[in-house]
Fold these 3 entries.
Entry 1:
Amino acid sequence: MRAKEIVFISGKGGTGKTTITSSFVNWLYKNGYEFVIADADVDAADMHILLAPRILKKESFIGKSIAEIRNDACTSCDLCRQYCRFEAIDIINSEYIVNPFRCDGCGLCQLVCPVDAIDMIPQTVGEWYVSDTNSGKMVHAKLYPGAENSGNLVTMVKHQAHLITDENDIPLIVVDGPPGIGCPVTSSLSGASYAIIAAEPTLSAIHDMERAIATAKHFNVPVGIIINKATLNEKNTQSIKDYANKRDIPVIGEIPFSRCVVDSLVDLKFTTDGCPELRDIFDKMFKKILEGLK
Amino acid sequence: MNNLEERIINELKQVYDPELRQDVVSLKLVRDLKADEKTGEVSLVFKPTAFICPIGIQLALMIKQAIVKVEGVKKVDMEVIDFVYAKQAMEYLKQLDEKEKEEN
């Protein structure tokens, strides 16, 4: 049976996705649940800082291809430069050179080249890993700075997580999603069973939360909201609750702003361990997430 | 693994998932492959990388077409699982059988 996926997203970055995800992971482990962790925030992965994974497998990730011109075969007909809509081909010292930062890898230059002087060279744009952590297996990745194809790398991370759950009959994948609503987020939501929105009571977070919810709903993924740092601005916290009530979206819980959360993270501790005063809140909240999954 | 299964796997190593740029064997998208060398009957399960895989149908057809090309293969029974368009993919695979029958 296909493992269910709980995906934590937020819209705005810095609302506490990874903090909540890692706390959830720690809580699941301590309560005897079996699961696989997937860090889908491949542009800026940080779950590994807290989970301290021991890497078992490391693979390169191949992204789009970039054009390369063989100048010994090139007749300087200039067609490639004229057709390239990304203005990626320059003439430097009478030689045709592809600017890899501009090339979109569409391959049009290769098609129009009358002497087959252009090759499309696949690029290694990142790495993905299967690791062991004290809480269970984890699949994570690193996209190289400035590299594209983050959505595909998220697909790879989730695919590898599913291979582990399939082989070991594990029923659940916990996905730490990326911020925003772009390709890596849609990839994170693809096939998800439940999306948890980590919201905070700020105007920008509320705005982005609405966009994240709309994205999840577009893919028919059920949504729940956790209001993080809820006591920072009670009026905005109420706005989030009103928004949720109007749309029948469950507010799974509210985490008050607490210094112990910051202290725990600084000490590389899970907040579930480092914040005894929040233990009951986490307990209720995480039970509710699992109930929502049913 | 018998000889026919080995040859099928080798053929499938040429079928690439264009999104992840890896072949369907190394991605473990093909499971439970069984091939009977006497009857030429092949069965397998295909599971795309993602539940909402945008190229799942395309890949299913590519996999079946690659297997059919292998010498000694007479019939391919392919199941598509964990895919939003699994039913449609199975329909297309069936149509591929019918097309082949017509051509023969």
Entry 2:
Amino acid sequence: MTWITKLRQRSVWLLLLIALVLSFSLAACGQQVNASNNNAPNNNSTSQQLQYQPNQSTHSNSNNANSNLQSTDQQVQSILRQLDGARNDVNSSNASSSQDNGQQP
Amino acid sequence: MKLLATVRHIPGRFVAVGILITLTLGMLVPSTAFAATASPHPCSSTDTQCFIAVGNQFIALRQTALTALSGKVTARQYDHLITIDQANVLQSDISTNQSGLTSLKSKLDAETNSHVARQDVVNIFFQFRIFAVVLPRDYRRLYLDIAVNIDIKLRSLGPRVQQAIKNAPAGEQAQLNTLFNDYKAQLSTAESQFDLAQVDFPALTPANFNYNRSTYLTTLSNLDAAEHTIHTALKQAGNDLHQIAHILKDK
């Protein structure tokens, strides 16, 4: 066996090794993607459960009533921010109202 | 003579480049000026296609703005900030204007006479007044609808807030009651403006804008004043509630 033949055999083995490593890596990546996809709904349901926790113990005592008030206050502050947004929309519509004034061909 | 001699010595390629620059600027300046300032006479009186093209641009702008408003109405409905009925009133008005503009576009596209095409373009402004009347009015109506519903929500919280104050330590009661009284007063202030604001909407029409401008502007000003009072009152009520919640925290 000449040295050229040996070199060819080694190259083939090296290529096979690289292909094997690549296939393992791809398989591992695929599993990770599947795992994260499967976890996504679980994470959502967990967060929903956390959100609903305060409501499950409503009216049990005055501490809970106060914590409900805190939560209600947060909701109110949130909708008041949306009211600010609606106010900004009114102001924007005022700003663009000049587009109808004296702009005729 | 000196000037002529100087000009004669300028290399030919500089002259050619100069002419090219001048021609390019000559073509660019009128088009950019038209885009920026929307010159009142961009079309020659006989150029039907120009009126059609310009009219279509004006209509597209208005359709886009109406679609944006419609999207906001839908979003606020999904947020439960307005009711289905309130959303329907607004969507109906948007739909009427969009249909009207679509019909006008069909008419305009079919015009062969430049004077009629020009009148169609004028009608985009004169009949519809989307930017001057429809959008300002409908955004104010959307605002008022949201404000009315927030007021209802805040009013419904009253008994719960009162109960929480009763359960608070005696030393906090005076401050909490002051805040709660102001909370109720602010809601009453907002509610006193709702009816005043509602009656303004029917007068905010393109017809009044065109033929009865002073009445239109006075009505719009009254509506703005009412909505400003409502906004200030609701924000203050929200601030009172926030302070009450803060004091009662961990009690």
Entry 3:
Amino acid sequence: MQEEAQVRALIEQVREGKLPRRGFIQQMVAVGLTAPMASMLLMHEGIAQTQTAFAYKPTKRGGGGPLKILYWQASTSLQPHFANGTKDADASRIFYEPLASWDNDGHLVPVLAAEIPSRENGGLSADGKSVTWKLKKGVTWHDGQPFTADDCLFTWEFSRDPAAATVTSGVYKDVTVVKIDSHTIKVTFAKATPFWAQAFVAGEGMIIPKHVFGAFTGAKSREAPANLKPVGTGPYKIVDFKPGDTIRGEINMNYHQANKPHFDSIEVKGGGDAASAARAVLQTGEFDFAWNLAVEDSVLKRMEDGGKGRAFIVPSGDIEFIQINITDPWNEVEGERGSIKSKHFAFSDPAVREAMSYLVDRKGIQDNIYGRTGFATSNFVNAPSRFKSPNTKYEFNVDKAAALLEGAGWKKGADGVREKGGKKLKLVYQTSVNALRQKEQAVIKQACQKAGIDVELKQVTASVFFSSDVGNPDTYGKFWADMQMYTTTMTQPDPERFMDQYLAREASQKANKWAGRNISRWTSDEYEKTYSAAESELDPVKRAGLLIRLNDLPIQANVIVPIASRPRVYGIGTKLAAQLSGWDGATSALANWYREA
Amino acid sequence: MGPYLLRRLLIAIPSLLGISVVLFTVLALAPGDPFSELALNPNVPAEVRAALRAKFGLDDPIWQRYFRWLFAMLQGDWGFSFISRVDVDTLILQRVPTTLAVIGASQLLALCIALPAGIYSAVRPYSWFDRIASTLAFVGFSLPTFFTGLLLILLFSIKLGWLPFVYRADLTSTGLTWWSEQIKQTIMPVMVLGLFQAASWTRYVRSSMLDVVRLDFVTTARSKGLSEWWVVMKHVVRNALIPVVTLVALTMPQVFGGAIVTEQIFRVPGIGSLLIDAILRNDTPVIMAVTFVFSCLVIFFNLVADLLYGWLDPRISFR
């Protein structure tokens, strides 16, 4: 295992101080791991976290006036375990807190925990089957009740109850939580789990109070008044919530961290569109902070000229990529289109897939379309350019692509379109309706034309494209096109679940109502073997090596063509000092935000 | 008139049932899934989505879901949103005040402009005033609200910096400052909607005035030596307003329905934006409730328009 050896060598370099911690994490991210996972590797190897503390300047609690935040998707729920998406999880995070959260370097930062469990402090068991969390003492809920281990236990029971249909149940259903004493809990896993920081951590770990939700579990959970009036431990207390519109909060004078928070009140306004949200922060300064500015970089730059605010760009694990269909999307085989048993007329030939990856002008797309908001990548995970993965690379070369196609027997016809055995090389390339994506489509279509491929562009409304509607032929899950493009978000810090998307059992097909996660339906024996090895591997470093291998396989087979990694783009007012993490929600460190005098 | 009213109300029942069947079927057949956002998040296992679908009864046949909805509705239970899991009536009631204030104000503004401008244009047809008013009216209803909305934002918020373009239903100030902030943030949406509506109403008032002004009884009134003001107000306007009243009454349900585009541009938390959000997320209970209330109002205001006819024109009787 060459990957494992490399990882070990890097870890030794960190131990000897030759490689900075951050450098190691960036390298790991470059080869397909996440920052939290890389950070946990170091922790496992006994290299302590070195927190790069965010400089919090205010010396007293409050006095910062109002903080005005704009989300162009309005939050609809303040119950973190019912969160429908980022907007809801971020909104709940204003009021609720987990035991620990992830900072931008992938460090685990204690919030409601007294300390981060480690081998040294006895928090982590040697067999990797349990983790013991010590809770912070003296923390109170917004209504004055003390926060104890019972609340953690209750959160676990609440979330795993199938009748409550929570969105976090995946994290809690397979773990067992027991109370050791009033401020200690032990989380036990069914099998050795190298990546233990999921339950009670970050967005899925927000703890809800037992005394408030106790009467509303299971099927009754929907009726809890606290779904709209949260009672948490967070820096701000709820004043008013209008689903789909506004959240108002006021300072929590009993917050458990000294001198925090800085703002006297908080207002989160929702709705509208990204461009005007950017305008309200960058150009008019009506708001202090805007979430997810999916706007062309040139437009952002023009707005920044106003001097009221700037775009704040945080690297994350989101990737814009093309999937190549190796099954036949046009003809029914055994009663279904795109059957896993069928073969694509062109893409079943690896040479054609390779040619396609040469036709994607990633650099051009970065320079002309994304600017600061997307970096060209050959990899499934974001990486600064100096940490290129040694195993995968990208190149834009129409001549190479043409030569490959020529070699595979696709000859140019009279109309300039290649054909083989009377079959023209005509492809349908679909994506969701989105101004940036339509430009990318145009760039790729042009290159394909030069190489003799006739590409038909297709756009599907996002609400249809991303739906799991079994009756609709245009969903991304069905993938009834030759190529498709979208952004995949790697929100979970442990890549194992992310990597299951090339397993045969996950193949998206009729039998599973196209809900399987392997949308390109590519499978390989080596992938299956490596995955099952990674699943049962206890040594985190070995496992990391296997996961890196998993990342490389589909890229080397050219069934996916990564285009750009998309950092998170926020808009912040010039005077606002905000701590943001690409590995956790936007509001995960809200208590640390302040306004410069 | 009593039996007439009763008959009209009874006719309304099958129409409403028909409307609800059509709405429900169309929504059930429409593409999309309320939990598609969860599908994109690999952290949420597919079983969670399946459990949610099963729990909210989305996998049952359409007719079962329809009757379940209908019986609940008859008992006053409007259901709850799939997305926020909040009761639908709470969601709608939260938005009624803002909708009434913004859309209501814009309709009032439209009336205040359309009536005088239309009447005066018709009294002096082809005068300078009439020509200018007609030109402006054509410009007004040719420009879509999303265009004028952005134009106003660019001018008053970005260039001049006078007015905020994000509407906040939760202003924290009190007293006079509240009023001034409220008025400042309401001006632009009200203008956009009001001027658009006024443009078309002006044309209606003018043409219906012109129809009446030529009739014999107006000549008679003039020959009796009545003052011009009296002739216009008492004899012309009252008769000319009959078709206009119908028109205004039929647009009244819009006050409830909100203005989807304008609400989106200015982030006004009205019922229009609730509806569009619900549609985008396939939140069937919310869409059903809003569209159903809207249909009830359309039917109700049709009835009101017919009754107003009788009051304005005693020759019409109800049988």
